[in-house]
Design goal:
CATH class: Alpha Beta
Shape: globular
Number of domains: 1
Helix content: 25-40%
Number of strands: 8
Radius of gyration: 18 Å
CATH architecture: 3-Layer(aba) Sandwich
Oligomer: single chain
CATH topology: Arginase, Chain A
Distance between the termini: 38 Å
CATH superfamily: Ureohydrolase domain
Largest sheet: 8 strands, parallel
Structural class: alpha/beta
C-alpha cells in the first residue's frame, strides 16, 4: 500500500449520540502527531482541515431519534468529501462519532462504483451498528451506519445511496455488545461477524486474512472503520461506549500490520475518540500509533512513551 497522498480530513461529528465530546477528536489526533508520524514513514501528507456540515433541512418529526437533521447534514457533506478525496489520495477521516461513517462509506463506495470495482468494509468495533432509525432503542444514530451503507430500509431522511455495499462485502471484527434485535437481523444476512469469543478461541489473524483474500480476489477497494471501543478500555479509555474485553495492544497492532501487508486498504475512519474522557492523551496516541502501523511501521519501531506524571 503506497498511497499517492495521505489526506487528513477532520469530521467533528458529535450528533450521533448524547454523550458529548467527540467534536474535539480531530484536533486531538492532530495534537497527538498523526501528520508527523505519517511524514516519518515517508508519506506525503496533507491536512485538508475540517468538513463543514451541509445546511440543515426541515425534516418530519423524528420521535426518539437524536439529532436527525444534524446527522443528515453531516452525511451529505461527508459523502461528497469522501468521494472527492478518493480521487486525490488516501483519505483518513478524523472523527467524530461513528455516525460520520454514514457519509464516508457511502462516498468511497460511490467512487468504487465509478471505478468499476467492488467496495469492501472492515468494521473494527465492539458494536455491529446494524440498527435503523426505527429499530434503535437509544435513538443514537452512531449505531446505524452498517444498516445504512448496506441498504436497509428506514433511512428515507438520508441521501439516497448511489452504491450500497453488498452485505457479503462487510466484515465485523471484535464484536462484544450486540442487541438481540441486531443479532437476529444479522443472522439473516451475509455479513461476516466475528465476536471476541471467536477471536479468543481461534485468534484474530485467521478471519481477517480470510476476508482480505476475498477483497483481493475481487479486486476490491477496502475501507477500514476503526472505533476506539474496538480496543479494550484498559488501553483506550477515551470513548463513551466502553465495553470490557476488547482487543489488546498487540492484537490491534497485528490487525494493522496484516492490513498493511495486504496492500488493499484505500481509506480509513478513526472514530469515537472523546478527548474529554482520555488520560493524558493516551488513547489519541494509541490510535495514532495504530494508524502508523497500518501505513507501514512495525510495532517494534514505535517510539517509547511514558504517561507517568
Amino acid at each position: 500500500m503506497t498511497p499517492k497522498t495521505c489526506l487528513l480530513i477532520g469530521a467533528p461529528v458529535d450528533s450521533g449520540k448524547r454523550i458529548q465530546g467527540c467534536l474535539m477528536g480531530p484536533d486531538a489526533f492532530r495534537t497527538a502527531g498523526l501528520a508527523d508520524q505519517l511524514h516519518a514513514l515517508g508519506l506525503e501528507t496533507r491536512d485538508l482541515g475540517n468538513v463543514v456540515p451541509a445546511p440543515l433541512r426541515d425534516l418530519p418529526g423524528s420521535g426518539k431519534v437524536h439529532a436527525l437533521a444534524e446527522t443528515v447534514a453531516w452525511t451529505e457533506a461527508l459523502m461528497r468529501a469522501a468521494r472527492d478525496a478518493m480521487q486525490a489520495g488516501f483519505p483518513i477521516f478524523l472523527g467524530g462519532d461513528h455516525s460520520l461513517s454514514l457519509g464516508t462509506v457511502a462516498g468511497v463506495a460511490d467512487y468504487a462504483r465509478d471505478q468499476g470495482r467492488p467496495q469492501f468494509v472492515l468494521w473494527l468495533d465492539a458494536h455491529s451498528d446494524f440498527h435503523t432509525p426505527q429499530t434503535s432503542g437509544s435513538g443514537n444514530l452512531h449505531g446505524t451506519p452498517v444498516g445504512y451503507i448496506t441498504g436497509l430500509p428506514g433511512f428515507e431522511a438520508f441521501p439516497d445511496l448511489p452504491a450500497p455495499v453488498p452485505q457479503e462485502n462487510v466484515c465485523l471484527l471484535g464484536l462484544r455488545s450486540v442487541d438481540l434485535e441486531e443479532k437476529q437481523a444479522l443472522a439473516a444476512t451475509e455479513i461476516s461477524c466475528h465476536d471476541m469469543r471467536a477471536i479468543d478461541e481461534h485468534g484474530i489473524a485467521a478471519p481477517l486474512r480470510d476476508f482480505l483474500a476475498r477483497v483481493e480476489a475481487e479486486n476490491g477497494l477496502l475501507h477500514v472503520s476503526l472505533d476506539v471501543d474496538f480496543l479494550d478500555p484498559s488501553i483506550a479509555p477515551a470513548v463513551g461506549t466502553t465495553v470490557p474485553g476488547g482487543a489488546t495492544f498487540r492484537e490491534a497492532h497485528l490487525v494493522m500490520e496484516i492490513l498493511h501487508d495486504s496492500e488493499l486498504v484505500t481509506s480509513l475512519d478513526l472514530v469515537e475518540l472523546n478527548p474529554f474522557l482520555d488520560e493524558r492523551g493516551r488513547t489519541a496516541s494509541l490510535m495514532v500509533d495504530l494508524t502508523a502501523s497500518l501505513m507501514g511501521r512495525r510495532v517494534f519501531d514505535r517510539p517509547t512513551r511514558s504517561f507517568a506524571a
